[in-house]
Predict the structure.
Amino acid sequence: MTERMTIRLEVNGRAVSCEVEPRTHLIDFLRDSLQIKGARVGCEHGVCGACTVRLDGRMVRGCLVLAVQAQNARVETIEGASDRGDLAELQAAFHARNALQCGFCTAGMLIAAAELIEQKPHASRDEIRKFMSGNYCRCTGYQAIVDAIEDVLEARLQRTSAPVASC
Amino acid sequence: MLRKRHQNDVGLDERRYIGSPVARPNARRLLQGRGTYVDDIALPRMAHVVYWRSPVAHARITAFDSSFARMMPGIIGIYQASDLEGVCKPWVATLSHLAGMKSAVQYPLAPGHLCWQGEPVYAIVAESRREAEDAMPYLQVQWEELPVVADMEHALDADAPVIHPELGDNLCFTRTIDTGNVSAAFEGADLVVEETYHFGRHTGVTMETRSVLADFNAADNTLTVYHSHQAPHMMQDLYSRHLDLPEGSVRVICKDVGGSFGIKVHSYPDDFATVALAKILKRPVKFVADRLESFASDIHAREHRVHARLAAMTDGRIVGFEIDDLSGVGPYSVYPRTSGIEGNQVLNITGGPYRHEHYRAVLRVVFQNKPPMSQYRGVGHPIACAVTEGMVDLAAQRLGIDPLALRRMNVMPDDSYPRTGASGIKLEGLSHEACLDEIEEMIEYARLRKEQRELRSQGVYRGIGIASMVELTNPGAAFYGVGGARIAAQDGATVRLDAGGGISVLVSVGEQGQGTETIFAQIAADTLSMPLGSIRVVTGDTGVTPYGGGTWASRGAGIGGEAVLQASIALSAQVIDFAARIHQRERNGLALADGAVVDTSTGETVVRLVDLATQAYFRPDTLPPGIHPELSATRHYAQRDYPFVFTNGVHVSHVEVDVETGMVKLLKHWVVEDCGRVLNPMLADEQIRGAVVQGIGGVLFEECLYDAGGSLRNGNMADYLVPMAAEMPDIEVAHIETPTATSQLGAKGAGEAGTAGAPAAVMNAINDALVPFNTRLTSHPITPEKILIALGTVSASK
């Protein structure tokens, strides 16, 4: 029996203190210990992206990070990001384009898409496809996902290039 | 893009939602991660089971000791086949209409004879999954390896080991079609081409793995099973019969399902074992496959070798097809749909679009020591279509006729239906000619060919691959019911005006992301003239919905949708009748509009539905004597006019092959599809796009690789390649609409056409690109290695 460790961290804006086995993956900690189920387990070795969450604001694979590595860190899942309204524009675009079917990959897909929008505001269609290739989807064939992200990027570019109204 | 060729009056002229690209209301919860898949459910006293699976392809257990494992923390129990005797009955998966089919008796846990690597043998139940997994290495198991039948080509050899000696040989099923005089027709032809096609064994790779949570209540003898599944009523029937529980005591609930594609339409030994353990332990037991278990124990599909011949005349007329299909399906036929259907479909569908009269086909389905194969999206179609269209392209090349022109010469004319294909398939009404016309325009065919010629002279090798296809949808009982399987061919819908004025729609066909529930809401909303937001759709619960078959064979929209339409029409008539009687109007002068009963001549609102509901539910004392409003209607629908309602379409793939590296770049993919009435063009297009990409996975990337000893070499998502966003092309979709007259709705299926046609189109495009090199690739997946071997750049390694 491994010795358990106490970790303290912030999950979706709330302080959490919990005993975990050092071998526990972050995704299992979130799903089993905290019962936060929005991020999901797909491949269990960092390929499919279904378990993608944010650790101190950056996306990570929940199955490649140990819970103890999140000590003193901020973790955010799809639930927290949704409640903050952080993903609203992407979620609306995904909805309008039907950029999801079964929904199992969607939480990870949205968090990856949000990171893309932040890092590459001028991404081309090909660049969107490349960036999103760490997230697998077996239902959509990806085109609607690319369309939805492209819609958000275009809308944001139009907003930033719009002339500022004078007072 | 939508073109209507035929108008048939189905009484849905004032459509508001049907035919519109309505976004899915139920997608909102999935977009916030707030869906509920089986692993998200936690019940009080829930135990977890993991399975010790056979590490080898063929063996006999010689010793087993679980005493050390039992000492591990959290262990509730460790079980073997004998522990489940008397709890769960075994099964034999055959269908009587697949004459002569045989399979061995199969148990939830293998009783000593291990027949494939991944077969469940022992069950470890613990308080948590990690405790169960921690105990696994302490199971002490010894086995004696038996000779392995891995290669299907040798499964019927005289000296091949027989996997199940009681069956006599390794032959599961064989079938022959012969239209007569085929040899003479081939002898009299100007051209005979022949070729052998190989299809790699692959699987569905659902993002959510197979999952089941069984909860047995010993006090009232009821079993509730939360299942990631496509056919809840089928599973209810199986659990009822095999666990000896009354049908009404078994409830199967399918909440959100994380991808299915046919993988989740079967029963699996570990499903039965999990449910049996819940019954034994009198507490909830959860099983969620891990990814390795998925690769090793989900059904596989498509392991076929087809030798094909095509006979044609110099003028381009196709005279006949001949095929010999060999398929290896693992050691057991899969229960209850069997493992004979895929090969059977290959025979039925090969040559499907064409009007040749001569056809001879032989099918042999054989047992081998690999995971069981059964129905996966497209079932036989990708194979039949690739063989047919590969042969047509080869013939076109030999005859010096443009491949699009050769297809146009040979497809069944659009005005020639109803008719029968050479294989015996009955066709109600198809539109091959219109689809070819449409796609020629879409792809700017002449320009593409010109570009191809110009680039070729610069050393750039692009190919254009065409594939005409048919797809079997909206099946009647011909698939399973006639063969004795208790799999419903009909589906039912209850449509109800609720007390608050909203509409509840309860349907036996569920959703795994296709948009089925949205389509049902659209149909109910239009028929009852209600806003979409006031329609609540409930599916996936045998305790709540009418009885039905569920999701398979592209039947959700066509069968389930028709049930919703008929129930909605019946409720509409009831509501109007009720309003007419209490408001003393002629019912003929009333109609539903915008949530109210209105006078059709004046447009005056007679009564709002919410007020009718209030009166009926809360103030029946105010109703005249003799009026008993029901405000609820249930209708069932089965398609009984044809064995299946066929759809058709055409795909074109545009690729560039790098002859230095063997890499294939997919430039674009086009589909023209005729699935009858298009209920929601956005959802129909997305079904086609997703299915095309699954077809592309099969033709370019996906294969479960086994060594000669039957060991899986790539059981993870890094080594088993599925399509990624970067390598997929944009897919343009257009529709021709030939509604089926078998239903008032007129909708046919659209879920599998993409998977059916894409492999053929991509294969033909690659071969078209490589014409200057005088080589052809006919072994799927067409990997860079195979291309370089075909080009002579590298030599085949053994």
Observations:
- The domain at 431-474+645-798 of chain B is CATH 3.30.365.10 (Aldehyde Oxidoreductase; domain 4).
- The first strand of chain B starts at residue 2 and ends at 4.
